[in-house]
Amino acid sequence: MRKLHMLASTTDTINTAFVLQWGETVLVVDGGFPHEAEHLHRVLRELGGKVDAWFLTHAHDDHISALFTMLEQYDDIQVGKVYYHFPSDEFLSRMEPRQRKLSTQELLDTLRRTLAQRNIPVVTVETGDCYTFDGFCVRVLRTPDETITHKGINNASCVYRVELPRESILFLGDLGKEGGHQLLKTTPPELLRADYVQMAHHGQNGCDRAFYEAVAPEICIWPTPTWLWNNDAGKGYNTHSWQTVIVQGWMNEIGVKTNYIAKDGDQVCEL
């Protein structure tokens, strides 16, 4: 089996959870909110209950909380290693002291404590690292830069490029315009190009058009719920201030051939 699974939110809200199935190897990117842990657990059980590597993009609760919640609630998922690089705790707490129910420091402490209790090794990734698995690799294109303070946690997203034998997938997390511009300046063009791209920040107010033009994807993966896709906060299609509809237009003009959208339920891309 060679598939990329995008898990939709069980409550039709923002959620970022990807599972790459490549033969016997299973990788996860992010995972979602705490309430998504049951769904995530079910999918991983169906794929054999083993995760070789779990990559986190950044320290927001809608990206990392399902991981530690699942580990707290279930003991039948084997996780090999967890890979991430967060900025300093001081930076994260200064940028965003509180994340919904937990303070940012409580969120980080819970993640670290849970991984330690389960004896799961943590690998701190660095820009330029390339982690090899069975028949493919994950290349780290970017790690946090604490000089970027606008939308500091989003712009601290690590960027991962999954390099398969014939295709590539770019995971952007919640990277913003500033981080995208930095990546454009520091990354060889051939490493930015990708067949698949995960749309930054759920498809709006993330990377700009120039960035996506450099990526030149054929397929877009949108971790985007219905209301955000439609730019609708309750008054109808495209009546709110989110930029999702604008970004959809960019991608059409760039020449994207296929869109996988979380609003339509769990999505499976055949690789």
List the SSEs and their pairings.
Layout: E1 2-6, E2 17-22, E3 25-30, H1 37-46, E4 50-55, H2 61-73, E5 78-84, H3 89-95, E6 98-99, E7 102-103, H4 104-117, E8 122-124, E9 130-133, E10 136-142, E11 159-163, E12 168-171, H5 177-186, H6 189-192, E13 196-198, H7 209-215, E14 219-222, H8 226-229, H9 244-254, E15 258-261, E16 267-270
Parallel strand pairs: 3-4, 4-5, 5-8, 12-13, 13-14, 14-15
Antiparallel strand pairs: 1-2, 1-16, 2-3, 6-7, 9-10, 10-11, 11-12
Helix pairs in contact: 1-2, 2-4
* First-last Cα distance: 9 Å
Please give the order of strands in the largest beta sheet: 8-5-4-3-2-1-16
Tell me about the largest β-sheet: 7 strands, mixed
Strand content: 25-35%
The percent range for helix content is 25-40%
Number of DSSP helices? 9
Secondary-structure content class: alpha/beta
Low-confidence stretches: none
Work out the number of β strands.
16
Structure summarized in a few sentences:
The chain has 271 residues and is of the alpha/beta class. The protein has nine helices and 16 strands.
Characterization of this structure:
With 271 residues, the protein is of the alpha/beta class. The chain is 30% helix and 27% strand. It is built from nine helices and 16 strands. The protein has helices at 37-46, 61-73, 89-95, 104-117, 177-186, 189-192, 209-215, 226-229, 244-254; strands spanning 2-6, 17-22, 25-30, 50-55, 78-84, 98-99, 102-103, 122-124, 130-133, 136-142, 159-163, 168-171, 196-198, 219-222, 258-261, 267-270. Strands 8-5-4-3-2-1-16 form a seven-stranded mixed β-sheet. It has a seven-stranded mixed β-sheet with strand order 9-10-11-12-13-14-15, with no helix packed on it. The chain has a two-stranded antiparallel ribbon with strand order 6-7. Helix 1 (37-46) links the parallel strand 3 and strand 4 (50-55). Helix 1 (37-46) packs across helix 2 and helix 2 packs parallel to helix 4. The chain is globular, with a radius of gyration of 17 Å. It starts with a strand and ends with a strand. The mean pLDDT is 97.
